Amino acid sequence: MSGLEIERKFLVKRGGAYRRAAFSCSHIQQGYIPADGATVRIRVRDDRAFLTIKGRSVNGGMTRYEFEKEITLDEAAHLMQLCRGGVIDKHRYLVRSGAHVFEIDEFHGANDGLVMAEVELGNEAEAYEKPDFIGPEVTGDKHFYNSHLLSNPYERWKENVPEDYR
């Protein structure tokens, strides 16, 4: 898959309502290969693996170029050795809301307690219905970029997040 990725990110309220609303759950581990001007990610999601390259964000962090290709688990294991800073470990829950699917990420390890949602859109002005458990928007806030969470994990700055979302 290649093209523009248009997404918005949000904090998710405590309480686990997203788990009850989910139609799917998967385990994700991902690492990042150092690159100037792009984000290069290796992801293993359950029994599948992907190489993803993302360009710099524009429009307040909402839009950026994305290239993604499925790779073998063996290729992913080898590429993970090139990753720096550790691995992001999370569970992803998929929740339908209106015509969209929200991806809810529940982080583990040094990012334990952080739960974020994102929704992909066809264009920047596209309307969407937020489930009740979706909170403040954090699109474009680098603190919430997965690649940033490796070097500056949530456990170091979670007190800056409103109490209902930590």
TrEMBL record:
GO terms for molecular function: adenylate cyclase activity. Residues 3-151 form the CYTH domain. It holds the Pfam family CYTH. The keyword Acetylation does not apply. CDD domains: CYTH-like_CthTTM-like_1. It is an enzyme of class 4 (lyase). Its EC number is 4.6.1.1. PANTHER family: SLR0698 PROTEIN. This is Adenylate cyclase. It comes from Prevotella dentalis (strain ATCC 49559 / DSM 3688 / JCM 13448 / NCTC 12043 / ES 2772). The gene is cyaA.
